[in-house]
Design goal:
alpha+beta; 508 residues; 8-stranded antiparallel sheet
Amino acid sequence: MFRGALDAVLDARPMTPGAMPIPSPTRMMVAGDSIAEHGTPDTWVRIVATALGLSDTNLGWGGQSALEVAARQGGVMARLTFPGNVIPASGTVTVTADTNPVGGNPGSGPDGGTVYGRVAGVAGSLFLNGADVRFQRTTDGAAVTVPGSVAFVPDRGTATRGDVAILAAGRNYTADVAAIVKAYVGMVAYTNPRFLTLGILPWEGTDPTHTEDAANWALRELWPDRFMDLKAWMLSQDAANAVAYKLTATDNTAIAAGFYPPAYRDDGVHPNVRGRRAIAQLVISRLRSEYGMTLQPGYATPAMPSVVPDHAWDFGGLLPGTNTVSVKARAGALPAEQSVESAAPFVAIVPASFKVPVVTVSPAWVRGSTGAVPAAQTTFLVGALTTTAGATSKIIAAAGGVIFRVSSGNKWELLANSQLITSPGSIDSAPHVFAIVQDGANSALWVDGVKVATAAGASFGAPSSVNIDLGSSSGAPARLAGGWVYRSRLTDTQIQTVSADLAAATIA
């Protein structure tokens, strides 16, 4: 039984030298492999740090074993042997290492394939030269004789001993559970009491027998109150709800086989934007419950209009600089899959002309749903073109079957049932509040509370789709703050009121 091997490893756990630093509640260190490094700079580590207002040190390094990760974190000190047992006075020298801190993928890690540290008090760095591990002194000095192998003390590991620690290694060489346990025991001993361990993900196509299960069991046995079961989370409906995603038949087939959804990953194991957000949601939740951390306030989410919409999606609560692929609906009892979702990640920014974060929605889009097609609909959009150049005939948004676009004559235009509603004035790149009214002959386009164009007759039609698409795959270069939908035709007075409310809340 593996329990006996686990006990043997625990009995042989290393004693860790040095005084324990005072834990810092404002800094986070993650020791991991490519799961932590993947997506740089938009890693799950950065998403967590941004959401909780932490400074972060990401020690992710693709391809490394748990022991190699621990050698950079400091929990398992690599021991180096120098030729002749002498650290030369200058230059570089090839060394042997019992555990290789620079193993794994060349060029990975926070310092591009290099690990800085000290050997017998001599500052220097380790790097690979082909298959050779090389040590280079930081500054020249006297040669130093060492008594055989000597510990390499990593700088980043030493500097982050007081940080809140997320230990997230083990996806490579996962079958060697004893080595993973040794690495984790060392890392836990070297860090401070504020730590969590993150479980190991399954790897479809590479690890069909799920060797991660034994390692995850061991980590849970060792620290049951600190273990985050990442595999179980990523296979759960709760994770899908957290990122506003509807699992497909393909996803459910993968889940049944013990792998996390293909919609969350770039390949068999590495998380894509949606997957990294799902991982971050688990870690954020656990840090908040375990250590009382609080979410950082973003820019104030725009206040709801005084005429409350039936459905609303806005980007006002996003932290500037944060990538996102989904925004949950603020109004309307919609299931998760009907929240706004995109085909590509968006970066929230606050241009000078806006009070709140907006996203550039073209040439991609976000999609919401009203759940059912109403008899009439009024949709408000707050946004601006980034430039008027190249915007001709490009789509900005679509609501209920009506396309909102730039006309061939560079006008604001609505299109439905081959019928057009075109504004008299030319487009510009200033922010506006647009209102789209869909109700047959009463259909109209409003800009900033002014009705600028109306339908020529009833043939423009009523709403014909539940979808609210912000942006288009071939759309205009547009920025939008959100969409607000009413399942009826508002009166002119109500449209003017809502336009004024949204302008006051979003436009600078």
